[in-house]
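ok posting inputs for the adenosine-5'-diphosphate job
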Amino acid sequence: MPANKEHPGLTDVQRILAVSSCKGGVGKSTTAVNLALALARYGLRVGLLDADVYGPSLPTLVRPEDTQLFQREEDGLILPLAAHGLKVMSFGWIDPSQQRGAAILRGPMVSQVVSQLATRVAWGELDYLVIDFPPGTGDIQLTLTQQLPIDAAVIVTTPQQLSFVDVVKGIQMFDTVKVPTVAVVENMSYFQCTACGDKQHIFGEGARRKLIEQFGFRNTYEIPLDPRLSSDGDEGTPMVASRPADPVSAVYYELAEAVHGEINTLQSESTGRPELSYNVGQNCELLYPDGRIVEIPPAELRFACRCAQCVSESTGEKLIHREDIDPEIYPTAIKPVGNYAAHVEWSDGHRSSIYPYDYLIELFDTPVPEVTP
Ligand code: ADP
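and the output
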Protein backbone atom coordinates (compact mmCIF):
# COMPACT_ATOMS: atom_id res chain seq x y z
CA MET A 1 0.00 0.00 0.00
CA PRO A 2 1.41 3.40 -0.84
CA ALA A 3 1.78 5.49 2.32
CA ASN A 4 -1.39 7.48 2.79
CA LYS A 5 -0.67 11.07 3.73
CA GLU A 6 -4.33 11.73 4.46
CA HIS A 7 -4.06 9.43 7.44
CA PRO A 8 -1.42 10.74 9.83
CA GLY A 9 -0.99 7.53 11.85
CA LEU A 10 -0.66 5.35 8.75
CA THR A 11 2.00 7.26 6.83
CA ASP A 12 4.67 4.60 7.31
CA VAL A 13 2.41 1.56 7.31
CA GLN A 14 3.16 -0.63 4.30
CA ARG A 15 0.14 -2.95 4.27
CA ILE A 16 -3.20 -3.16 6.06
CA LEU A 17 -4.87 -6.51 6.53
CA ALA A 18 -8.47 -6.93 7.73
CA VAL A 19 -9.37 -10.05 9.70
CA SER A 20 -13.11 -10.41 9.38
CA SER A 21 -16.00 -12.77 10.12
CA CYS A 22 -19.68 -12.82 9.43
CA LYS A 23 -20.57 -13.60 13.04
CA GLY A 24 -19.09 -13.05 16.48
CA GLY A 25 -17.57 -15.86 18.51
CA VAL A 26 -16.01 -17.78 15.59
CA GLY A 27 -12.43 -17.08 16.69
CA LYS A 28 -11.70 -13.95 14.66
CA SER A 29 -9.68 -12.28 17.44
CA THR A 30 -7.81 -15.49 18.23
CA THR A 31 -6.88 -15.72 14.54
CA ALA A 32 -5.95 -12.04 14.27
CA VAL A 33 -3.57 -12.10 17.23
CA ASN A 34 -1.90 -15.40 16.26
CA LEU A 35 -1.58 -14.30 12.63
CA ALA A 36 -0.02 -11.00 13.76
CA LEU A 37 2.45 -12.90 15.97
CA ALA A 38 3.23 -15.34 13.14
CA LEU A 39 3.98 -12.46 10.75
CA ALA A 40 6.24 -10.93 13.41
CA ARG A 41 8.16 -14.21 13.72
CA TYR A 42 9.20 -13.76 10.08
CA GLY A 43 10.93 -10.56 11.17
CA LEU A 44 8.15 -8.30 9.92
CA ARG A 45 7.12 -5.21 11.90
CA VAL A 46 3.52 -5.71 12.89
CA GLY A 47 0.77 -3.67 14.55
CA LEU A 48 -2.56 -5.07 15.72
CA LEU A 49 -5.69 -2.96 16.08
CA ASP A 50 -8.67 -4.43 17.88
CA ALA A 51 -11.52 -2.67 16.08
CA ASP A 52 -14.25 -4.64 17.76
CA VAL A 53 -15.83 -1.80 19.72
CA TYR A 54 -18.69 -3.98 20.91
CA GLY A 55 -16.49 -6.51 22.64
CA PRO A 56 -12.80 -5.64 22.59
CA SER A 57 -10.85 -8.79 23.36
CA LEU A 58 -7.24 -7.73 22.80
CA PRO A 59 -6.82 -6.59 26.45
CA THR A 60 -7.52 -10.21 27.44
CA LEU A 61 -5.46 -11.82 24.67
CA VAL A 62 -2.30 -9.81 25.34
CA ARG A 63 -1.13 -8.04 28.48
CA PRO A 64 1.19 -5.12 27.75
CA GLU A 65 3.46 -4.32 30.71
CA ASP A 66 2.10 -0.81 30.87
CA THR A 67 -1.39 0.09 29.69
CA GLN A 68 -1.10 3.80 30.40
CA LEU A 69 -1.77 5.65 27.13
CA PHE A 70 0.28 8.66 26.03
CA GLN A 71 -0.26 11.23 23.30
CA ARG A 72 2.68 12.41 21.24
CA GLU A 73 3.23 16.10 21.90
CA GLU A 74 4.09 17.19 18.36
CA ASP A 75 0.99 15.82 16.63
CA GLY A 76 -1.34 14.50 19.32
CA LEU A 77 -1.21 10.93 18.00
CA ILE A 78 -1.68 8.16 20.59
CA LEU A 79 1.34 5.95 21.18
CA PRO A 80 0.55 2.26 20.71
CA LEU A 81 1.23 -0.22 23.51
CA ALA A 82 3.74 -3.06 23.16
CA ALA A 83 3.16 -6.79 23.67
CA HIS A 84 5.11 -9.84 22.42
CA GLY A 85 6.94 -7.67 19.89
CA LEU A 86 3.72 -6.23 18.43
CA LYS A 87 2.40 -2.67 18.55
CA VAL A 88 -1.14 -3.00 19.84
CA MET A 89 -4.22 -0.84 20.37
CA SER A 90 -7.78 -1.51 21.49
CA PHE A 91 -10.79 0.44 22.69
CA GLY A 92 -10.51 -1.71 25.79
CA TRP A 93 -7.46 0.32 26.83
CA ILE A 94 -8.94 3.66 25.86
CA ASP A 95 -12.19 3.10 27.71
CA PRO A 96 -11.78 0.20 30.14
CA SER A 97 -15.53 0.32 30.89
CA GLN A 98 -16.02 -1.29 27.44
CA GLN A 99 -14.42 -4.46 28.72
CA ARG A 100 -17.50 -4.85 30.86
CA GLY A 101 -19.72 -4.78 27.79
CA ALA A 102 -20.76 -1.13 28.15
CA ALA A 103 -20.60 -0.35 24.40
CA ILE A 104 -23.04 2.41 23.55
CA LEU A 105 -21.93 3.29 20.03
CA ARG A 106 -24.31 2.52 17.20
CA GLY A 107 -24.19 2.14 13.41
CA PRO A 108 -22.37 4.86 11.50
CA MET A 109 -20.59 6.12 14.63
CA VAL A 110 -18.78 2.82 14.96
CA SER A 111 -16.99 2.91 11.61
CA GLN A 112 -16.11 6.56 12.18
CA VAL A 113 -14.68 5.92 15.62
CA VAL A 114 -12.75 2.85 14.46
CA SER A 115 -11.18 4.58 11.49
CA GLN A 116 -10.30 7.51 13.75
CA LEU A 117 -8.58 5.15 16.14
CA ALA A 118 -6.70 3.43 13.29
CA THR A 119 -5.48 6.74 11.91
CA ARG A 120 -4.81 8.54 15.22
CA VAL A 121 -2.35 5.99 16.58
CA ALA A 122 1.35 6.66 15.97
CA TRP A 123 1.95 3.23 14.39
CA GLY A 124 5.33 4.32 13.03
CA GLU A 125 7.05 2.07 10.51
CA LEU A 126 5.09 -1.15 10.07
CA ASP A 127 5.17 -3.88 7.46
CA TYR A 128 1.65 -4.91 8.50
CA LEU A 129 -1.20 -3.38 10.41
CA VAL A 130 -3.60 -6.23 11.18
CA ILE A 131 -7.11 -5.00 11.96
CA ASP A 132 -9.41 -7.29 13.94
CA PHE A 133 -12.65 -6.11 12.31
CA PRO A 134 -16.03 -5.80 14.07
CA PRO A 135 -18.00 -8.99 13.24
CA GLY A 136 -20.52 -8.83 10.38
CA THR A 137 -20.76 -7.86 6.73
CA GLY A 138 -23.02 -4.84 7.02
CA ASP A 139 -22.68 -1.08 6.69
CA ILE A 140 -20.17 -0.73 9.53
CA GLN A 141 -17.69 -3.09 7.92
CA LEU A 142 -18.29 -1.75 4.43
CA THR A 143 -17.78 1.86 5.49
CA LEU A 144 -14.67 0.93 7.40
CA THR A 145 -13.27 -0.79 4.33
CA GLN A 146 -13.94 2.38 2.32
CA GLN A 147 -12.47 4.69 4.95
CA LEU A 148 -9.21 2.83 5.50
CA PRO A 149 -6.74 1.88 2.76
CA ILE A 150 -7.09 -1.86 3.32
CA ASP A 151 -4.99 -4.08 1.06
CA ALA A 152 -6.44 -7.50 1.70
CA ALA A 153 -8.77 -9.50 3.90
CA VAL A 154 -8.64 -12.79 5.75
CA ILE A 155 -12.03 -14.31 6.51
CA VAL A 156 -12.57 -16.48 9.58
CA THR A 157 -15.40 -18.97 9.76
CA THR A 158 -16.43 -22.20 11.49
CA PRO A 159 -17.31 -25.46 9.76
CA GLN A 160 -21.11 -25.50 10.22
CA GLN A 161 -23.47 -25.89 7.28
CA LEU A 162 -24.09 -22.21 6.75
CA SER A 163 -20.48 -21.15 6.87
CA PHE A 164 -19.99 -21.36 3.11
CA VAL A 165 -22.74 -18.78 2.63
CA ASP A 166 -21.10 -16.62 5.30
CA VAL A 167 -17.74 -16.74 3.60
CA VAL A 168 -19.27 -15.87 0.23
CA LYS A 169 -21.00 -12.87 1.87
CA GLY A 170 -17.66 -11.77 3.30
CA ILE A 171 -15.80 -12.17 0.00
CA GLN A 172 -18.55 -10.23 -1.80
CA MET A 173 -18.53 -7.40 0.73
CA PHE A 174 -14.77 -6.92 0.30
CA ASP A 175 -15.13 -7.32 -3.47
CA THR A 176 -17.54 -4.38 -3.67
CA VAL A 177 -14.71 -2.15 -2.45
CA LYS A 178 -12.06 -4.00 -4.44
CA VAL A 179 -10.33 -5.55 -1.44
CA PRO A 180 -9.16 -9.08 -2.30
CA THR A 181 -9.77 -11.88 0.18
CA VAL A 182 -6.41 -13.64 0.33
CA ALA A 183 -7.19 -16.47 2.78
CA VAL A 184 -10.01 -18.20 4.61
CA VAL A 185 -9.51 -19.74 8.04
CA GLU A 186 -11.87 -22.46 9.13
CA ASN A 187 -11.56 -22.29 12.91
CA MET A 188 -12.58 -25.04 15.35
CA SER A 189 -12.48 -27.20 12.24
CA TYR A 190 -11.72 -30.55 13.84
CA PHE A 191 -10.79 -32.09 17.15
CA GLN A 192 -7.60 -34.10 17.38
CA CYS A 193 -7.97 -37.08 19.68
CA THR A 194 -5.21 -36.77 22.31
CA ALA A 195 -5.02 -40.57 22.71
CA CYS A 196 -4.88 -41.75 19.07
CA GLY A 197 -4.04 -38.50 17.22
CA ASP A 198 -7.04 -39.01 14.95
CA LYS A 199 -8.55 -35.88 13.38
CA GLN A 200 -12.30 -35.80 13.99
CA HIS A 201 -14.28 -33.33 11.90
CA ILE A 202 -17.11 -33.04 14.43
CA PHE A 203 -19.16 -30.64 12.32
CA GLY A 204 -18.42 -32.32 8.99
CA GLU A 205 -15.83 -31.26 6.43
CA GLY A 206 -17.23 -27.74 6.31
CA ALA A 207 -16.77 -25.22 3.57
CA ARG A 208 -13.13 -25.81 2.82
CA ARG A 209 -13.52 -28.28 -0.02
CA LYS A 210 -16.29 -26.21 -1.60
CA LEU A 211 -14.15 -23.09 -1.41
CA ILE A 212 -11.31 -24.84 -3.17
CA GLU A 213 -13.54 -26.40 -5.82
CA GLN A 214 -15.92 -23.54 -6.49
CA PHE A 215 -13.79 -20.45 -5.89
CA GLY A 216 -10.38 -21.85 -6.71
CA PHE A 217 -9.25 -20.63 -3.31
CA ARG A 218 -5.75 -21.86 -2.69
CA ASN A 219 -5.38 -20.51 0.81
CA THR A 220 -7.78 -22.17 3.18
CA TYR A 221 -6.53 -23.21 6.60
CA GLU A 222 -8.00 -25.45 9.25
CA ILE A 223 -7.40 -24.64 12.91
CA PRO A 224 -8.51 -27.35 15.35
CA LEU A 225 -10.82 -26.98 18.28
CA ASP A 226 -8.07 -26.89 20.86
CA PRO A 227 -8.65 -25.91 24.51
CA ARG A 228 -5.09 -24.57 24.66
CA LEU A 229 -5.97 -21.86 22.11
CA SER A 230 -8.61 -20.68 24.54
CA SER A 231 -6.61 -21.01 27.77
CA ASP A 232 -3.48 -19.42 26.26
CA GLY A 233 -5.61 -16.52 25.03
CA ASP A 234 -7.28 -16.11 28.42
CA GLU A 235 -3.87 -15.96 30.06
CA GLY A 236 -2.66 -13.19 27.77
CA THR A 237 -0.07 -15.31 25.90
CA PRO A 238 -1.60 -16.49 22.61
CA MET A 239 -0.57 -19.88 21.20
CA VAL A 240 2.10 -18.60 18.78
CA ALA A 241 3.78 -16.73 21.67
CA SER A 242 3.42 -19.48 24.28
CA ARG A 243 4.01 -22.57 22.10
CA PRO A 244 5.91 -21.44 19.02
CA ALA A 245 6.95 -25.00 18.11
CA ASP A 246 3.46 -26.51 18.37
CA PRO A 247 1.87 -27.92 15.18
CA VAL A 248 -1.10 -25.57 15.66
CA SER A 249 1.26 -22.57 15.69
CA ALA A 250 2.76 -23.99 12.49
CA VAL A 251 -0.64 -23.55 10.77
CA TYR A 252 -0.54 -19.85 11.68
CA TYR A 253 2.96 -19.63 10.13
CA GLU A 254 1.63 -21.20 6.94
CA LEU A 255 -1.24 -18.71 6.96
CA ALA A 256 1.18 -15.82 7.52
CA GLU A 257 3.42 -16.99 4.67
CA ALA A 258 0.47 -17.36 2.31
CA VAL A 259 -0.94 -13.94 3.18
CA HIS A 260 2.45 -12.28 2.78
CA GLY A 261 3.02 -14.05 -0.53
CA GLU A 262 -0.40 -13.12 -1.89
CA ILE A 263 -0.12 -9.48 -0.91
CA ASN A 264 3.36 -9.19 -2.39
CA THR A 265 2.13 -10.70 -5.63
CA LEU A 266 -0.85 -8.36 -5.71
CA GLN A 267 1.39 -5.38 -5.06
CA SER A 268 3.79 -6.34 -7.80
CA GLU A 269 0.77 -6.78 -10.10
CA SER A 270 2.32 -9.87 -11.60
CA THR A 271 -0.43 -12.35 -10.86
CA GLY A 272 -0.48 -13.37 -14.53
CA ARG A 273 -4.08 -14.44 -14.10
CA PRO A 274 -6.55 -13.64 -16.88
CA GLU A 275 -9.81 -11.72 -16.68
CA LEU A 276 -13.04 -13.18 -17.96
CA SER A 277 -15.10 -10.93 -20.20
CA TYR A 278 -17.76 -11.10 -22.91
CA ASN A 279 -17.39 -9.65 -26.36
CA VAL A 280 -21.04 -8.78 -27.03
CA GLY A 281 -22.63 -10.91 -29.73
CA GLN A 282 -19.53 -13.05 -29.99
CA ASN A 283 -17.49 -15.13 -27.57
CA CYS A 284 -16.48 -14.99 -23.93
CA GLU A 285 -12.79 -14.26 -23.52
CA LEU A 286 -10.00 -15.03 -21.13
CA LEU A 287 -7.88 -11.91 -21.37
CA TYR A 288 -4.32 -12.25 -20.02
CA PRO A 289 -2.25 -9.29 -18.71
CA ASP A 290 0.12 -9.66 -21.71
CA GLY A 291 -2.82 -9.12 -24.09
CA ARG A 292 -3.26 -12.76 -25.11
CA ILE A 293 -6.90 -13.75 -25.61
CA VAL A 294 -8.47 -17.19 -25.40
CA GLU A 295 -12.01 -17.33 -26.79
CA ILE A 296 -14.69 -19.46 -25.17
CA PRO A 297 -18.10 -19.95 -26.81
CA PRO A 298 -20.76 -18.84 -24.26
CA ALA A 299 -22.66 -22.14 -24.47
CA GLU A 300 -19.42 -24.02 -23.64
CA LEU A 301 -18.83 -21.80 -20.63
CA ARG A 302 -22.42 -22.27 -19.47
CA PHE A 303 -21.99 -26.04 -19.81
CA ALA A 304 -18.81 -25.87 -17.71
CA CYS A 305 -20.72 -24.44 -14.72
CA ARG A 306 -20.00 -26.38 -11.52
CA CYS A 307 -22.63 -24.96 -9.18
CA ALA A 308 -24.78 -27.31 -7.12
CA GLN A 309 -27.62 -27.04 -9.66
CA CYS A 310 -25.35 -28.09 -12.51
CA VAL A 311 -23.14 -30.72 -10.85
CA SER A 312 -24.21 -33.13 -8.12
CA GLU A 313 -22.29 -32.29 -4.95
CA SER A 314 -22.31 -35.87 -3.75
CA THR A 315 -21.42 -37.78 -6.94
CA GLY A 316 -19.82 -35.11 -9.14
CA GLU A 317 -22.21 -36.12 -11.94
CA LYS A 318 -23.25 -33.39 -14.42
CA LEU A 319 -26.89 -32.43 -13.96
CA ILE A 320 -27.12 -30.22 -17.05
CA HIS A 321 -27.02 -31.55 -20.58
CA ARG A 322 -25.45 -29.86 -23.59
CA GLU A 323 -28.67 -30.20 -25.61
CA ASP A 324 -30.62 -28.26 -22.92
CA ILE A 325 -28.43 -25.20 -23.35
CA ASP A 326 -29.73 -22.53 -25.71
CA PRO A 327 -27.02 -22.19 -28.42
CA GLU A 328 -27.69 -18.42 -28.38
CA ILE A 329 -27.09 -18.11 -24.61
CA TYR A 330 -24.94 -15.18 -23.44
CA PRO A 331 -23.69 -13.72 -20.12
CA THR A 332 -25.73 -10.81 -18.73
CA ALA A 333 -23.11 -10.03 -16.06
CA ILE A 334 -19.53 -11.07 -15.25
CA LYS A 335 -17.98 -10.01 -11.94
CA PRO A 336 -14.72 -11.03 -10.26
CA VAL A 337 -15.11 -12.96 -7.00
CA GLY A 338 -12.15 -12.58 -4.68
CA ASN A 339 -8.92 -13.04 -6.50
CA TYR A 340 -9.36 -16.37 -8.11
CA ALA A 341 -12.76 -16.65 -9.72
CA ALA A 342 -15.44 -14.93 -11.79
CA HIS A 343 -19.19 -14.95 -11.18
CA VAL A 344 -21.37 -15.12 -14.30
CA GLU A 345 -25.11 -14.50 -14.70
CA TRP A 346 -26.78 -15.89 -17.82
CA SER A 347 -29.53 -14.95 -20.27
CA ASP A 348 -31.37 -18.18 -19.32
CA GLY A 349 -31.78 -16.78 -15.78
CA HIS A 350 -29.06 -18.96 -14.24
CA ARG A 351 -27.32 -16.91 -11.54
CA SER A 352 -24.97 -19.22 -9.69
CA SER A 353 -22.04 -19.84 -12.03
CA ILE A 354 -18.69 -19.29 -10.35
CA TYR A 355 -15.59 -20.17 -12.35
CA PRO A 356 -12.14 -20.29 -10.71
CA TYR A 357 -9.59 -18.95 -13.23
CA ASP A 358 -7.43 -22.05 -12.71
CA TYR A 359 -10.40 -24.19 -13.74
CA LEU A 360 -11.02 -22.09 -16.85
CA ILE A 361 -7.36 -22.24 -17.81
CA GLU A 362 -7.31 -26.00 -17.34
CA LEU A 363 -10.46 -26.42 -19.39
CA PHE A 364 -10.03 -23.89 -22.19
CA ASP A 365 -6.37 -22.92 -22.31
CA THR A 366 -4.41 -26.12 -21.88
CA PRO A 367 -2.84 -27.33 -25.11
CA VAL A 368 -3.98 -30.82 -26.02
CA PRO A 369 -0.88 -33.01 -26.15
CA GLU A 370 -0.01 -34.12 -29.67
CA VAL A 371 -0.74 -37.76 -30.31
CA THR A 372 2.04 -39.48 -32.21
CA PRO A 373 0.78 -42.14 -34.56
P1 ADP B 1 -14.43 -13.66 17.91
O1 ADP B 1 -13.31 -12.68 17.80
O2 ADP B 1 -14.85 -14.22 16.59
O3 ADP B 1 -15.58 -13.18 18.72
P2 ADP B 1 -12.70 -15.11 19.74
O4 ADP B 1 -11.38 -15.20 19.05
O5 ADP B 1 -12.84 -14.07 20.83
O6 ADP B 1 -13.88 -14.96 18.69
O7 ADP B 1 -13.04 -16.56 20.28
C1 ADP B 1 -14.23 -16.85 21.00
C2 ADP B 1 -13.91 -17.86 22.09
O8 ADP B 1 -13.56 -19.10 21.51
C3 ADP B 1 -12.74 -17.45 22.98
O9 ADP B 1 -12.97 -17.88 24.29
C4 ADP B 1 -11.56 -18.21 22.36
O10 ADP B 1 -10.56 -18.49 23.32
C5 ADP B 1 -12.23 -19.49 21.91
N1 ADP B 1 -11.60 -20.08 20.73
C6 ADP B 1 -11.33 -19.47 19.55
N2 ADP B 1 -10.79 -20.33 18.68
C7 ADP B 1 -10.69 -21.52 19.31
C8 ADP B 1 -10.21 -22.82 18.94
N3 ADP B 1 -9.74 -23.06 17.72
N4 ADP B 1 -10.25 -23.80 19.87
C9 ADP B 1 -10.76 -23.57 21.10
N5 ADP B 1 -11.24 -22.39 21.52
C10 ADP B 1 -11.21 -21.36 20.65
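notes: The mean pLDDT is 86. The longest helix spans residues 247-268.
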